[in-house]
What does this fold into?
Amino acid sequence: MLLEVANLDVRYGRNHAVKGLNLSVAADELVTVLGSNGAGKTSLLRAIQGLTPCASGTIRFAGEDITRLSPPERLRRNLVLVPEGRQIVIGLTVHENLQMGAYCRADAAVQQDVDAIYDRFPNLAARRKMPASVLSGGEQQMLAIGRALLARPKLMMLDEPSLGLSPLLVERLFELIAGLRNEGLAILLVEQNTHMALEVASRGLVMELGGVVLEGAADLLRDDERLAAAYLGGH
Amino acid sequence: MSDSTDIAVARMRLRAPVIAVVVTLVMIALGIALGGKVIAHQVVSGLLLGSIYMTVAVAFTLTIGVLNFLNFTIPTLFMLTGMAAWGLLSGGYLTLAGRGAWLVALAVGVVAAVAASLLVERFTFRYLKMKHGDATEHAIPLVSSLGFLIIFENLVLIAMGSDSQRFAVPFRADLHVAGIVVGVPQLVSCAMAVAVVAALSFVLKRTKIGRALRTIAENPDTASLLGVDVGRVVPVVFILTGLLSGVAGALFTVNYGDVSPFMGDNVGTKAIAAMVLGGVGSIWGAIAGGLVVGLAETLSIQFFGGDSVAMTVWGLVLVIIVLRPKGLFGVAAIGKGKM
Ligand SMILES: Nc1ncnc2c1ncn2[C@@H]1O[C@H](COP(=O)(O)OP(=O)(O)O)[C@@H](O)[C@H]1O
Ligand SMILES: [Mg+2]
It folds into this structure.
């Protein structure tokens, strides 16, 4: 397994946001984590990246225990998060945002990889010198994904990438995600768009109040009425 | 924030340097045309003083921009440079350096300012981060930097006395340009202040560490997400702060020849006025604000006498922030694209 999370707990004071969670993602697998607002999905991804401390549990990545490593150290091991709300740096230009994506790299191929991102996203190429604040929501999501790709991910975690996008752009986004999966990238996808997420994923987990309430193959989950119940239930 | 205002902000940032240069030239020309040589001379002195304020104001604005706190130790770093240089020179520690002793003394003074700045970082930011998580969330950096201001000042006071001391620079040369006398040290100082600020601006705009600093300024969490080790980059801000304050202190010492444990207080206050006037968090604002405050000061002495300076400067600040609450070059929201 590329990523193995065992008994992970995340606490904010008395608030127990993730409770003894177990999760694994194989290389070149796309796993989706579903669940309503406040279920603990963002806390889970941030804890895996090291941005939020975990109270207990272990995280192994590519055969190594990374539980105690800092976020930059995890990034240098090619574990990359595309955060909720995209977190584009709007005071930087589009190009500078991409350069920040390669911040942890020191190899000579960065320029070439940036060019490859521009080839993949011509909209970004056309706006490379503009402040990132002029980008539309869809373009910002492309920038966030392009930026993450520049860290050469072995595993890319995406936190609700479809949030705030029009149906047409959501369609295009999921085509992009499926494309990345087909290129052999391992992906951990957090979504509220259950239908689309289960369409591209091979396996899925449903979180509720910090724990996993349902887990299984994507095509089985899709028809499971308990999935709908999890969204209606919650708190 | 709508797209159009963002583009307007970007355009304005491009235009700012041009405006600053044009305004300066127009003021000099106006000074000569309307007031003759006396006024023109005051304008030149004002620009020199302004270039020192500008350098200190940039130090203030950099710390606010990136770390989100008003670093009160900046005036002390300024003072330490002058006092350390004077102490070395008058104590006879630099006889080996011969005629260049004053330059060596000032260089060591700047190094002392950088070292002191790192000391402050060690005992405010890093310590707080270890103990309480994110230091920027607390008022503690502000208060502890004020504490350091008082402690450093009093240490110097105890060690070297409270008297104002003479720092003699064996170096005088005047240029006569269009009938105005301009001191070579003045010119060199202006050039150095501009060079230091331009270098900083280059670092922020064009280098990897500059991009990291701008990212931290906007959102430390995003920076960390992108692999910036925020704890390692923070000392860089303090080094730059020490360097800017130290260079300003050295230029002040060379040009005015007096050092005292309190020499930083007046310059610090004026630099804060300059920063507010130009727009908090904006480098170009600090530059414009520094020059405006310097000019206001010398012209105010010329027209209304020495006692009027504080009233003129702070009156100007009040008028400008009432007319433009974000300062001359202030950008919309704190934390967004402010450098
Ligand atoms: N920084 C934080 N401080 C305190 N509580 C938080 C913080 N972030 C999230 N929470 C709480 O943790 C729980 C899980 O939130 P989150 O991980 O954002 O869920 P999701 O991403 O599934 O909506 C919620 O109850 C939320 O209020
Ligand atoms: Mg979330």
User: Anything to note?
Assistant: The interface with chain A takes residues 1, 3, 6-7, 10, 208, 211-212, 214-215, 217-219, 221-222, 224-229, 336-339 of chain B (CB under 8 Å). Residues 1-12, 332-338 of chain B have pLDDT under 50 and may be disordered. Residues 3-323 of chain B form a domain with the ABC transporter involved in vitamin B12 uptake, BtuC fold (CATH 1.10.3470). The radius of gyration of chain B is 20 Å.
